[in-house]
Write a structure and sequence with these properties.
2 domains, Helix Hairpins, 27% strand, 39% helix, Chitinase A, domain 3, alpha/beta
């Protein structure tokens, strides 16, 4: 399996989700299965089947999270050389030239991405266009909505 790039915050979020699934959700489901079994015939017991289905989802997510964390490459952007270049984990202020709008993006791993919070995946068209650029550079983004020009205003390592 390939290395999964994560920021420190992203790794902490995945660990917290994993902990919740193991310590809270898994015991709840085990209890629900035991309770449903106590109701008798399992063939026509909707509660039992729903609990087993939920158990499958939770166990699958636990395996997925454990796999990602075991293959994680946790990157502390504050320890990278601060040479003004856009790299994984940096926060970038850009000016969208056509619309004269400023945006702030933080380049993160796929699991951390949330466009509403300005967290964009390292594999997204915007991140791919910005990586390697410095303040003052213009990145041409080939986005699904068409081509966009983004001028890099500031790169922060936070």
């Amino acid at each position: 399996m390939n290395k999964v790039p994560l920021t420190i915050r992203g790794a902490e979020q995945l660990r917290a989700e994993l902990e919740k699934l193991k310590r809270v959700e898994r015991p709840k489901i085990i209890e629900a299965i035991a309770e449903a079994r106590a109701h008798g015939d399992l063939k026509e017991n909707a509660e039992y089947h729903a609990a087993r289905e939920q158990q499958g989802f939770v166990e699958g997510r636990i395996q997925e999270l454990e796999g990602k964390l075991s293959n994680a490459e946790i990157i502390d952007v504050t320890k990278l050389p601060q040479n003004g270049k856009v790299v994984f984990g940096t926060t970038v202020d850009v000016l969208e030239l056509e619309k004269d709008e400023e945006h702030t993006f933080k380049i993160v791993g796929d699991d951390e991405a949330n466009i509403k919070e300005g967290l964009i995946s390292v594999g997204s068209p915007i991140a791919r266009a910005l990586i390697g650029k410095s303040e003052g550079d213009v990145a041409l983004v080939d986005a699904p909505g068409g081509k966009r020009e983004l001028e890099v205003l500031e790169v922060r390592y936070e």
